[in-house]
Amino acid sequence: MRKSKKYYELQALDLWDFPALIRKAREIQDITMEALCKDICSFSMMGKIERGERLAGKELRDRVLARLGVCSDGYENFLFYEDYLVWKRKQRIVNAIEKSDFDTAEEELAAYEKKNGAFNLEKQFCLVMRAQIMQKRHEDPAVIASLYEEAVKLTVSDIDHVSIKNLCLSVQELDMILEYERCCRPERLASRCEEILAYISSEVFDTYSYVKIYPKVIYYLYLSTPERDRDWNRLLCLSNRGIEQLRTTGRMYYLWELIEIRREGLIRLLDRIENDGEGRKREAVQKVIDMMTDWLEALDFVHELCGTHRRMETSCYLYQQKEAYCISDVIRRRREMLGMTKKALCEGICSEKTIGRLEAKKTKPQIEIVRLLFERLNLSGEYQRWQVVTKDVRAYPIVGEIVRYVNNCDAEKTKILLEDLEQYVSMENPINKQYRERIELYVSLRQGNITREEAVEKFVQTLEYTIPYKNVTVNGEKYLTNVEIQCLLDIAVNMVKTSMNNALDSLIDICRQLENDDGISEHIAVWEIVMTNVANIYGNIGEFDKSDMINLRILNECIYCYRMSMLELNLYIITWNCSERKKNNIPIKQGYQEELYLKRCITLCQINKNIARELRIKERLKKLQDNEIKCTE
């Protein structure tokens, strides 16, 4: 997916300097103060917030960021304790609804409403969540409609009288408009979909915000257009674009529905192609139809394995906020990991008393103090959306490309991109040096240029640019950056097969801590990668049942969070475990078919554009089929 210059300029903004962020983002997006604050706060309040004369609460900050097109996906979000509690309460509600735990959802919603439901944004959240619960329970449509109408008109008061193009709206508000029109004004839903498509095509939103709303708009456009009036050529283009966006970002929002739309459109196209003279065209279209059928069957296979629904049931995913950490916990845990006293940490920055009160969650110091404390703890004093520390936006697309080429095992291109990155990122910074050397080591290991034992030693050295390895592996609470976790993971994966794998034990402890702190969903990006590798390690040492149990849990959690990048790998590890059981005469699940599992893995690789893994699994499938042929001869 091509990203514009505007996208990277927005990514470079500092979320800790909220007043400056508003000013710069409004300038980048060409949004007036009046449009930004409409129906969410007064013009004078927004002016004071932008001038730094007044602090905005988390709810208001989130809505302002969403209207400015700044999404929190993809980077760590550090919050003071009060804001952290608000985030945590909301995430408990959202996750309970996603998992159909309605008793917990109702209980948490009532508690949130009692404490936070006095203001418009908080009240709006409560109304939408209540509507989501009723929708999943298939309750009275009239009541659901009234909830959406009340919710949307709290912050888009003139929705019945203005065009969307004249408003400044968040993804959540656009979704509320869709639901309001569907429930209350179905005759104008199609025209609203067209308005929203025009609105979001203007580069208002970043990639992850855009991909959250675009697929749903296409699906609702399809539903709201009578069959006789459907422009199938256009629907094919729109659905294909949505599918490609989802594949690129690794998300599953309305993926099944869009694939189904595309398949239906292609079948209709095939019916219109003449049999005579257009055989090649028919063959090409049929090939794509077959591919769409395979994709649907592969997704159905995973859903059936997990006992989850293939169709979207709620809009709760729009309210999921990942990777949030309490600043007080981060500073305390990191200080204790480094064996640093409060006195040593605060020297030249603030008083020891301030550190004590901050760690006890009793004060909220100036952001500049927090920045300096983070830097002394070998953490970045800036938000890290791209795992490197720089304000040069030219670095960001390079980092994005590096991820893609590393995943597809393209060592030459990765090396070129790392060299390009050094033009825009200082390698004197230990965080940036750690990022670069970890990638270089990873590629070198995959090429066979170094042994696993050598790799472990070098990954330890890379980790220690920011924190000693021995400090990471001792018992106790921990905070590690995502790159540090990746280094620790590389160490664990490449250690000689042994039960004395300290790195593995530390990773499991970190995942357990994340789960106990906030839940798996809130830290799914870290959890899914770490636990997938943990499951793989358990399989390698012959603990197949434990490995399978973890794999199935990962598949479930990924589906609940609408993430698909790790689906094929976890399914493949289950397949590998079963083949190892057969070699060792260990009973396997009745009805298990290795060839079917491998074919589903290959299809999921294709959906995720993971070419390297697809080729490896195809080789395994070919060996299996060749062996079966030999056995029948």
Per-chain topology:
Layout: H1 5-11, H2 18-29, H3 33-37, H4 43-50, H5 58-67, E1 77-79, H6 81-98, H7 102-116, H8 120-136, H9 141-155, H10 171-184, H11 189-200, H12 207-224, H13 232-249, H14 255-272, H15 279-306, E2 324-326, H16 327-337, H17 342-346, H18 352-359, H19 367-376, H20 395-407, H21 411-421, H22 430-446, H23 452-463, H24 469-472, H25 482-494, H26 502-517, H27 524-540, H28 544-560, H29 567-583, H30 594-607, H31 611-632
Parallel strand pairs: 1-2
Helix pairs in contact: 6-7, 7-8, 8-9, 9-10, 10-11, 10-12, 11-12, 12-13, 12-14, 13-14, 14-15, 15-28, 15-30, 20-21, 21-22, 22-23, 22-25, 23-25, 25-26, 25-27, 26-27, 27-28, 27-29, 28-29, 29-30, 30-31
Describe this protein's structure.
The chain has 31 helices and 2 strands. The protein is mostly helical. It has a two-stranded parallel ribbon with strand order 1-2. The longest helix is centred in the middle third of the chain and has 28 residues, at 279-306.
In short:
This protein has helices at residues 5-11, 18-29, 33-37, 43-50, 58-67, 81-98, 102-116, 120-136, 141-155, 171-184, 189-200, 207-224, 232-249, 255-272, 279-306, 327-337, 342-346, 352-359, 367-376, 395-407, 411-421, 430-446, 452-463, 469-472, 482-494, 502-517, 524-540, 544-560, 567-583, 594-607, 611-632; strands at residues 77-79, 324-326. By secondary structure, it is mostly helical. A two-stranded parallel sheet has the order 1-2.
